[in-house]
Amino acid sequence: MDARSHPIAATAEEDTTDALLLWVLVWSELAAFGILLVGFLIVGLLQPDAFAAARSHLDPLLAGINTLVLLTSGWQAALATRPRASLRQRRRALVNAALFGFAFAAIKVFEYSAEAGVAGDPQFGSFFELYFLVTGFHLLHVVGAFVLIIVAWRPKPGNVELITTLWHVIDLVWIVMFPLVYLV
C-alpha cells in the first residue's frame, strides 16, 4: 500500500501543509506590518514637529479602550481553542471574538470620523497619510471577524487553530502599533 493512501499518513501530510501555510501567513503579516511601522517611525523622525502636532488630534483614550476591546476579542478566540471546550463553547467563543472584532471596527471608524476633518492639513506632514495607511491596513484585517463566524458554524480544530492564530497575530501587531502611533 502506498504511504500517501494510508489515512494517518495523509492526515500527517495535511497537518504539515496546514502548519506551513499558517506560518507563512503569520510571518508575511508580521513582515508587512513591520515594514509599515518602520516607515512610520522613519518619517516621524524626519518630521518630528508635524508628527507631534498631528498626534495632538488623536484620542489615545479611545484607542486604549479599543485596545481592551481587541484584547477581549483575542481572549475569546483563545477560549475557542481549549482542548476540552464543547462544540457549543467553541462556537460561542468564536462568535464573541467576532463581535468584539466588529466593536473594534466600529470604534475605529468613529475615531476616523473625528480625525478626517484635520487629516488634510499640510502642517501635519505625512502623519495622517501614514496613520490611515497603517491603522487602515490593520482595520482591514479585522474582516477576519467574518471568518471567525464562518468557522464557528463548522469549528473543525484545524480551522479554529488557523483563524485564532492569525487573529492573535493581528492583536500582537496592534499592541506594538498602539504605543508607536498614539503615545510616542
Which terms summarize this structure?
single chain; 184 residues; mainly alpha; 7 helices; disordered N terminus
Nutshell version of this structure?
This protein is mainly α. The chain has helices at residues 7-46, 48-55, 60-80, 87-115, 127-141, 144-153, 157-183.
Structural commentary:
By secondary structure, this protein is mainly alpha-helical. It has helices spanning 7-46, 48-55, 60-80, 87-115, 127-141, 144-153, 157-183. Helix 1 packs antiparallel against helix 5 (127-141), helix 1 runs parallel beside helix 7 and helix 5 runs antiparallel to helix 7 (157-183). It is elongated.
Q: What's the helical proportion of residues?
A: over 70%
Low-confidence stretches: 1-10
Rg calculated over all Cα atoms: 20 Å
Strand content: under 5%
Give the topology string: H per helix, E per strand: HHHHHHH
| Number of DSSP strand runs | 0
Secondary structure tally, helices: 7
What spatial form do the alpha-carbon principal axes imply?
Answer: elongated
Q: What is the mean pLDDT?
A: 90
Distance between the termini: 62 Å
Q: Classify the secondary structure makeup into a structural class.
A: mainly alpha
How would a crystallographer describe the biggest sheet?
none
